[in-house]
Design a protein that fits this description.
This protein has about 750 residues and is mainly alpha-helical. The protein has 4 domains: about 230 residues, no CATH class; about 90 residues, no CATH class; about 190 residues, no CATH class; about 130 residues, 3 Solenoid (Pectate Lyase C-like). The chain contains 32 helices and 5 strands. The strands form 2 sheets. It has a 3-stranded antiparallel sheet. Strands 1-2 form a two-stranded antiparallel ribbon. Helix 6 runs antiparallel to helix 7, helix 16 packs across helix 18 and helix 20 packs across helix 21. The N and C termini lie far apart (about 65 Å).
């Protein structure tokens, strides 16, 4: 059911407003001013606010006042909206719907944007021109009609994710432009100013969400569930967006960025990013400023394209589109301080579960970053506000428990990029040689703690790892071959000691204990299980991810191929081999959950060397072992359902009684393997080499046998399901006497 912009307050909670208290002589504009004053002095009390609420048709009624007075008053419109939502919840004992929440928050955010833009130094002459011109009856009528504007669920989501293309923005802009024209601006100036107000409204919507906390549960839920990314722009909305962009920057520039996105040289990843409203704005603005060109992407892959986009976006935002709380020239050092703030935010989001993190957690981490801390202290002394929240609000702010505010990246991948950037700095320091008597620039003791601090909770995703590997190539001064080898050796040394239980078994306070206590304090009552074992397991598994990634990287470099070769079962400083070590690690991860190893490393074992490992009776479903060395692996009675083993070498392995249901074996080497009683139901064995393999009693029901290779030594005795298998070679049918 659609919601009307303001009247739902009176209709839904009318029994709490008495007729006697509702009567007042104040007009609607004055009522908004008085409402703000009452909130500031007395807080959100329904009895004192009721008279003002009933006199208002919408918060935009304040535009009936002289514009200069509205701007000069610096009214806290966001506070008005969030307070009214709290009153609504308290009085009705119900959560406001998404439509009702957005109806209030959008009005407040739009007016905050209007005030902020007219307070900018470059707009003072414009403000003087508008002056104290009174409103006309015609414009007053237009403003009052906003009260009956209807908002449904889809439009509410659109307003939340891409406000300037929404129905609300269109209605608000029409009213504001009319008021500005009546105050003396030309039609062009009035339209341009109102469009700019709509474009900047999203940042104040984010601020409102931070202030509201859990009292606006529908908004909190939408953000937690990735509502922003789920509402990608379709072609129609994107075209409407470009039309409005053309009104702001000129038709020619809008067409230029459209042609940029349509050009064959533009990577698909960039086009995907352009479906996200906020990122489309950033891409278009950077293209306008000459910071985004097709030549940037020549010779690079898709992940390289995304890396470039995020790198340029970060630089552009910090140097060109500065936060309002830092509207001055920045030195290079100060820009680095702002980058530290964002990088720590990325780290905190990953360690908080990959979605959002409390602002207090970021503030705690920044205490040790002197430049970032001094910037925030300076902004706080000038504004008397929370500068960290304001800085982050331009991109990613969502409600946090208790109303403290928490950050969430408008595009999750941007947060992962920032976390990778933060991790890159530490990896680079770990790879540095020491001075004089020091063996390393960062001592082993300090590195051990930093590993637990940076990698002790949260998982390195495939995208984070891809960014890190790109940084190795993109930053040769930080990661030459000598440094990469040193980094590998140091991480491998940590891995050996972790396998021996050195950190979890140390005298207290242990490193896992230290990190556990910090996270518990920072994350409070969040529904995240944080114990010493969780910290220790995540640290070890994340280091394994880095070692496997460096292994793949080293195998592609001629000067590193012989020196960087990671195998999880090799022992420290010896040629000894413990074939059960990886199995024990997987079992250790079961302390958290029996799928934890798969969840953390499952997608990151591509090209790994696990040869001769003992992995029997293991749950490894959905794991990606494509291109891996699995020679001689003992993996009997294990679960490898839906696993990807394409182009892997499984020769000589034992997979008796193993389930490969729906697994992929494209061009895999299964020669001389024991596959007795294995289950290949619906598996894809296209191009697999089965020479000398033992397939006795194997189930091949609905399996794809396209272009398989076999020889006279392949054992097909008792094979089941061949009658339903797909593309069974005619020669094999003839050999087995099938019809």
């Amino acid at each position: 059911m659609a919601t009307r912009l303001w009247t739902f307050l009176n209709t839904d909670i009318r029994e709490f407003f008495s007729v006697e208290t509702a009567k007042t002589g104040a007009d609607s504009a004055k009522a908004v001013l008085e409402l703000a004053k009452a909130l500031k002095e007395q807080g959100p009390k329904d009895a004192t606010l009721a008279p003002y609420v009933q006199q208002i048709s919408s918060l935009l009624d304040v535009l009936n006042s002289p514009i200069a007075q509205v701007v000069g008053s610096a009214l806290p419109f966001v506070n008005i909206a969030t307070s009214l939502l709290k009153i609504y919840t308290d009085l009705t004992q119900e959560e406001p719907t998404l439509e009702k929440s957005v109806a209030l928050v959008s009005q407040a955010a739009y007016l905050e944007s209007f005030q902020a833009i007219l307070r900018l130094p470059e707009n003072q002459q414009l403000l003087h021109q508008i002056g104290d011109a009174p409103t006309s009856t015609a414009v007053e009528t237009q403003i009052h009609t906003l009260a009956n504007l209807e908002l449904d669920d889809n439009e509410a989501k659109r307003a939340l994710t891409c406000f300037h293309t929404s129905k609300l923005a269109q209605a608000f802009n029409t009213v504001l432009a009319a008021r500005l024209r009546q105050a003396g601006l030309s039609e062009t100036d009035a339209r341009r100013l109102s469009d700019r107000v709509a474009w900047d409204t999203h940042r104040y919507i984010n601020q409102a969400l931070a202030d509201a906390g859990e009292s606006v549960k529908p908004l909190a839920e939408l953000y937690r569930n990735g509502g922003r990314e789920a509402l990608e722009m379709d072609d129609d909305h994107q075209n409407r967006w470009f039309a409005q962009w053309g009104q702001l920057v000129g038709t020619e520039k809008a067409i230029d960025v459209q042609q940029f996105l349509q050009d064959d040289r533009c990577p698909d990843r960039v086009r995907e990013l352009a479906r996200e409203p906020l990122l489309l704005y950033l891409l278009a603005a950077m293209h306008r400023d000459g910071e985004l060109t097709l030549q940037m992407f020549e010779g690079g892959g898709e992940i390289t394209a995304k890396n470039l986009i995020y790198s340029r976006t970060l630089d552009w935002v910090l140097t060109k589109q500065r936060p309002e709380w830092l509207n001055r020239d920045l030195t290079e050092i100060e820009t680095e301080g702002l980058q530290q703030i964002l990088a720590e935010a990325g780290l905190c989001v990953v360690q908080s579960g990959g979605e959002h993190a409390p602002i207090k957690m970021i503030e705690a981490r920044l205490k040790n970053e002197q430049m970032a801390k001094s910037l925030l202290d300076e902004a706080r002394s000038r504004l008397g506000d929370n500068p960290l929240r304001n800085a982050l609000a331009a991109f990613y702010l969502q409600p946090g428990k208790g109303g403290d505010g928490s950050v969430e990246f408008a595009h999750k991948s941007f947060g992962e990029f920032l976390y990778a950037s933060r991790l890159k700095e530490s990896l680079s320091e770990w790879a540095l040689p020491g001075l004089k008597r020091q063996k390393f620039y960062i001592s082993t003791e300090r590195m051990d703690w930093e590993i637990y601090d940076l990698l002790g909770f949260g998982s390195l995703t495939p995208e984070i790892v891809e960014y890190l590997m790109l940084f190795l190539d993109a930053c040769p001064e930080m990661f030459n071959s000598e440094k990469v080898l040193r980094l590998f050796k140091r991480l491998e040394n940590f891995y050996f000691r972790w396998c021996d239980g050195e950190f979890i078994d140390a005298d207290p306070p242990t490193l896992p204990q230290k990190k556990m206590r910090i996270l518990r304090e920072q994350l409070g009552d969040r529904d995240i299980s944080i114990g010493q074992r969780q910290i220790d397991i995540h640290a070890g598994l994340n280091v394994m991810i880095l070692l496997f990634a460096l292994h793949r990287y080293g195998q592609m470099k001629d000067d590193l191929k012989a020196q960087i070769n990671f195998h999880p079962c090799v022992q420290k400083n010896t040629s000894d081999f413990d074939d059960s070590q990886l199995r024990r690690i997987i079992q250790y991860s079961y302390c958290i959950r029996n799928t934890r190893f798969r969840a953390i490393l499952g997608a990151l074992l591509i090209g790994s060397n696990l040869s001769n490992s003992s992995l029997h009776i293991m749950s490894l479903s959905y794991i990606n072992l494509s291109q891996s060395n699995l020679k001689g692996v003992s993996c009997w009675s294990s679960d490898l359902r839906n696993a990807n083993l394409s182009n892997a070498d499984l020769s000589g392995g034992n997979f008796t009684n193993t389930s490969f249901h729906k697994a992929k074996f494209l061009n895999a080497n299964l020669s001389s393997t024991k596959l007795i009683s294995a289950v290949f139901v619906e598996a894809d064995l296209s191009g697999a080499d089965l020479c000398d393999a033992n397939l006795a009693n194997t189930n091949l029901h609905n399996a794809s046998l396209t272009n398989i290779i076999w020889d006279e030594n392949t054992n097909w005795e008792g094979v089941r399901g061949l009658e339903t298998a797909i593309n069974v070679p005619e020669a094999l049918k003839k050999q087995l006497g099938l019809g």
